[in-house]
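FAQ: What does the model actually see?

It sees only this:
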Amino acid sequence: MKINAFTTVSRRSFLAYCGGTAVAAAITMPSVMARGDDAPFRAGIACVDITPELPVSMVGGFRDRTATGVHDPLHARCIVLDNGEAQLALVMVDNCLIQRPVFEAAKKRIQEKTGLSPDRVLAAATHTHTGVTVTSVFQSDPVPGYADFLAERIAEAVDTAVKALEPAQIAWGSGAVPGEVFNRRWYMKDGTIPPNPFGATTDKVQMNPPRASENLVEPSGPTDPTVSILALRRPDGTPLAVLANYSLHYVGDTEAAVLSADYYGFFADKLASLMAPAASGKPFLAMMSNGTSGNINNVNFGEAGVAGPPYSRMSAVAESVANEVFQRYQQLEFKDTAVLASATREITLGVRKPAAGELERARAIVAAAEGPDMKTSEEVFARESILLADFPDAVPVPLQALRIGDLGIAAIPCEVFVEIGLALRNESPFKNTFTIELANGYNGYLPTAEHHALGGYETWRARSSYLEVAAAEKIQETMQALLAEVKS
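And it is asked to produce this:
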């Protein structure tokens, strides 16, 4: 199949082409959560191609990269839930970072097409580092026209899923895959961490240190091995959709210069192949959402690396997670309906901007660079400091909580540190809770205040990390309030 910017995958193609995980949840305000006894619970699924014409810019590195090929197509995958009184749409998009205006444009079109209000839609990027640039970060700038194209495709996915609503049953649960997640921030022996790009030697941890180095001490935090599951099936027992959530940054063992959905897409295909016999030819959608993976990746730094062919690690991770989800699916208790609710809140957070002396230093570094591309990390972050100087002193940050039966979902527009996700789950009023990061916008990394004190890449001031030091505490407090609101 030739993939281009105008290809749309139909429902008939799901089993053969567009595997993926799906999320269910219908949104309403907390005061309207009951379902009418005469209204059957329904769900709809859709999978829309978002692969562009080539060549195209790929975000995800300090320097811009150009994709000239496609290994596997990119998609916007959607589930819509309807309990008779309310609907909710969840959309997972194969992209690295998506700014809030793109999601807002999509939600406006969704409302025009379906009547769903913006607060009833949760849309998020998966965080593949081999997707199309739609957000300016480091030296990559948005591909002209792609933001509007992506907004339209997201809206098309929701519209298609609404039109495909059919009677369904719903279940939720979790499993665990501990062997594929590792904390990527390490304490190192004194004096072995290089100076940071700002010339300081104050960092106490190092991101992605040399593997099996004698200078390694210990990881600076935990991991979250949980695989959360939201599943839908038809009344006859055939599977309809699965949405999974796993706290893993991305894998990234691709060939150079090709687009790929990373393990998120591989997982979708693998789970679809496992579920296909039970589906008996009926459409099935799988999709993966990213949990709290701001400091988590797939590299075991305590051991020496073993080189493998491209995509081998993506495939291995996808297979491990898909097998766990498939096994747990067999144990789920499906229900005929579920309480559905949503609550949203926008908070204002400060921006960490360079001081006058820091800005002067940055301008001198950029002026001395050979350019036009910045080559060293010092040059790259100097340029980021100059760009951050034009940011406002504070920015709005959208937060959202969903309720699906006794499942709570927190949606945060950041690359969230795993400690935050673990705390939200531990303090949640719901039996099952998970976080979807990079949801409804993009506001950079979200380290805890403790991790800010440790320093390291994720805290270095840039358009990829600029929120105030207290941002995690404020977001966590607000999310706890929102989860309590939808529970009441």
